Amino acid sequence: MHEPDATQALSESELLLHAESLLRSGEAVAALRLCDTLLGRFVESPGGYFVRAQAQRALERPWHGLCDVRAALALARRRGQDLHSLLPLADALEALVAADPLGRPRLGARHHALEILGSLLIAGHGAAVEEIAESLLPRFGDAPLLWFAIGLARRTRGRIDRALSAIEQALIERPTLPAAIYLRGRCLLDRGDVESALATWARLDELPAPVWPPPESTWLEDGAIHLLQRLPEYAWDERELYFQRARLYADAGLAGAAAATLDHLLAREPSAVDALLAKARLLLRQHRGVEALAVFESAAQSLQPLDRLLEDPDPLVSIELGRARAHALFGDEAAARAALARARDIQPGAALEDAALDAQLRA
What we know:
The chain is mainly alpha-helical. It is 72% helix and 0% strand. Helix 1 (12-24) runs antiparallel to helix 2 (28-41) and helix 18 packs antiparallel against helix 19.
């Protein structure tokens, strides 16, 4: 039985000795679990990956073992450690993988590789991630996830052009990989090419809607998204990407494209209050008060009691302030003052962002 709490006081070397002892006793499953615990605490431990690779081999999981031993080799090299003890196991796993009748890694092995690369990326080992992923490419063949991880690693190291090259390769092998499309846009933004970034992200709107249960190919796509979700810099959120795109379009003066982006989100979530508010505010910026007012009304109708409890500030305050601004745009100051009063009844001190308009409604 795996008991993480019982191992918290043990050092890396003590955990390794215990795992090796379990392996010698024929308890490969227990050794594997202990290595998982070790690598959860010491993600850059070459020994942890090496012993786990041995356990994978004992459990006849050579593809998983190959991922682990490649990590062990890369990390040992970066620590300046002796690699001789690792090489025989690496050769043995290479031979087992080469003899695989299917000639390709199982889905679980691909996800295992991505978990290793993600953990090392989070720990700041971008160079090791690039080395490990590149070493696995010849064996994995069709490997959009590895190319995607290489692109991520290169971007974290500021190598934007080389990151784009890796991402392009991922998209050649899997043109519909959402996370790679997203990352390509981020790299283009790094280069200051907003127009190309937005054109890239527009491709996300063309992807088919998710299905359940997902096919194997979708599991691979979800693996890449999961990696982005684990990285604080990216914190992948498909909904937030719509808002990011809309803001970029609006800042570039492309109000129509911004509205169309929000409409894509609203087509999926017709009652999304945050998207309705964003669209209404966009209409206000275009001085389209009547249309904005209609969207604010839709937001009010879609608002649920739980939304008001969980959101801060209360979304109804935003709706009433938006109504006040919309009424003021087409000259109905009485309605504007009434909406502003309702906002201040809900939240005393609530004020419009536009100080001049707020002063006008106070007069």
